[in-house]
Each structure stands twice: as structure tokens, then as C-alpha cells.
């Protein structure tokens, strides 16, 4: 946790004692439930903190400068909640919705929301791109964020319908995406979004940069 705090400070987003305690409580709950729920293959504490939590902390450091103080955030394909729950912990003013289609993970997310006691955290059991028309809870977000949801072109297609007119899509990527690549280029046209910026960062336990790529709607 000290290494996470050091990384957060270097990204310009210091974590206070309450945030660190809440992150630790949540990740401990992940470890407790992982064997019965099969949430993640990463059971090592360092991986949970310096890989999963660190991604969300870095995202918050970038997005706080670009979004309203009280943004509506949708974490699409939440899984164990590593991105959405940690974002909510470090950004208490945000209204965060976790959307997960797998029932056992959905049940875990509800339990985690109860365990952490975070207000303004909602959980939906739904698969993006299928089912009934979208509800108000799933539309007009200031941010739709995804990590390992799908290949980037498909992820953009799933995220775009839930984005507000002036909102952003944030996608975690291992490498810089090539927007001239035909499949991605087609997806950008189809969804009406463009790259706003690509933000390099390095996890505390790694020696190579990753990217948080931000997309915004193209101007009419």
C-alpha cells in the first residue's frame, strides 16, 4: 500500500489514509471471496494492489482534470470491480455504476458495495449491446471506462451508446493503438468518436509503459 501511495503521489493524485484503508478493505474482500466466486487469477496481494488498484488510481489522476467534479461514471464489464470500486473510493464525489453480465460477479459486486459502504455506487446485471432498451441508469454518462472488456474496436461499439454528448470513453491498453488500422478506423467512424489523448503510465511493479486512451465524440 505504501508503494501505491507513492505512485499516486507521483501521478499528482495523493491518497489519504481513508482511501488507502478502503482500498485495502475492498481488496481483502476480493481475496476472501475469490476461491468461491473465481473473480481473478491474480491472488497475490502485490498484484491486486500494484496492478489492479493502481490502474484505477492512475485513471482518476487523469480524469479529474477533464470531467466535472461530480461525474456520472459507468464501469462497463466491471468483473471484480477493480476499476469502478477503486475509482469511487478515490473519487468520492463521483456517481459510479458497475455493469456486469456474469451473475456470480454481479452478486459479488453487490456484496462488495455493501462491505465498503460507499454511497453513490450502483450495480447493474446486464450485458452491453443486448436485451431491452437502455434505461436512464445506463445512458448519458460523463465517462464510460473499460478494461479488458473486448478488443478495442468492439469495446468502443459497446461503450459509445452509453456516453453523454460531451462525455469520454477511457480504455486501458497495453500499447498505443493504431487508429489507421482498418478495423479500428471503421469502429471510430461507426461510433463517431476520436482519440482525445493517450496517457502513458507505468505500474509500480513494471518496467514498461501502458496507456489510458481517451476518446471523445467528434464534432458535428
Residue stretches low in confidence (pLDDT < 50, at least 5 long) are none
How many beta-strand segments? 7
Count of the domains: 1
> Helices and strands, in N-to-C order?
HHHEHEHEEHEHEE
Q: Which secondary-structure class do the elements indicate?
A: alpha/beta
Question: What is the name of the CATH superfamily?
Answer: Vaccinia Virus protein VP39
* Fraction of residues in β-strands: 15-25%
What's the pLDDT, averaged over the residues?
Answer: 94
Shape: globular
Approximate helicity band: 40-55%
Task: Give the class-level CATH name.
Answer: Alpha Beta
What order do the strands of the largest sheet run in, or round the barrel if closed? Answer: 3-2-1-4-5-7-6
The Cα radius of gyration reads 16 Å
Distance between the termini: 45 Å
- CATH architecture, by name, is 3-Layer(aba) Sandwich
Task: Describe it.
The structure is a single chain. By secondary structure, this protein is of the alpha/beta class. It has one domain (2-217): Rossmann fold. Helix content is 41%, strand content 23%. The chain has 7 helices and 7 strands; from the N terminus they run H-H-H-E-H-E-H-E-E-H-E-H-E-E. It has a 7-stranded mixed β-sheet with strand order 3-2-1-4-5-7-6, sandwiched between helices. Strand 2 (95-100), helix 5 and strand 3 form a beta-alpha-beta unit. It starts with a helix and ends with a strand.
Amino acid at each position: 500500500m505504501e508503494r501505491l501511495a507513492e505512485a499516486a503521489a507521483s501521478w499528482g493524485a495523493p491518497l489519504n489514509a481513508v482511501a488507502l484503508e478502503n482500498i485495502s478493505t475492498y481488496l481483502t474482500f476480493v481475496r476472501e471471496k475469490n476461491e468461491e466466486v473465481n473473480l481473478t487469477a491474480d491472488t497475490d496481494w502485490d498484484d491486486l494492489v500494484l496492478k489492479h488498484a493502481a490502474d484505477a488510481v492512475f485513471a482518476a489522476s487523469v480524469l479529474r482534470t477533464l470531467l466535472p467534479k461530480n461525474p456520472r461514471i459507468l464501469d462497463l464489464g466491471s468483473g471484480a470491480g477493480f476499476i469502478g470500486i477503486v475509482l469511487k473510493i478515490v473519487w468520492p464525489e463521483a456517481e459510479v455504476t458497475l455493469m456486469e453480465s456474469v451473475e456470480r460477479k454481479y452478486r459479488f459486486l453487490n456484496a462488495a458495495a455493501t462491505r465498503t459502504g460507499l454511497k453513490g455506487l450502483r450495480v447493474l446485471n446486464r450485458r452491453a449491446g443486448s436485451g431491452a432498451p437502455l434505461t436512464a441508469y445506463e445512458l448519458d454518462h460523463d465517462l464510460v471506462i473499460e478494461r479488458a472488456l473486448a478488443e478495442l474496436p468492439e469495446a468502443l461499439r459497446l461503450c459509445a451508446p452509453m456516453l453523454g454528448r460531451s462525455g469520454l470513453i477511457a480504455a486501458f491498453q497495453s500499447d498505443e493503438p493504431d487508429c489507421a488500422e482498418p478495423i479500428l478506423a471503421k469502429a471510430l467512424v461507426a461510433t463517431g468518436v476520436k482519440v482525445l489523448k493517450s496517457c502513458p503510465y507505468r505500474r509500480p511493479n513494471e518496467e514498461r509503459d501502458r496507456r489510458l486512451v481517451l476518446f471523445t465524440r467528434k464534432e458535428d
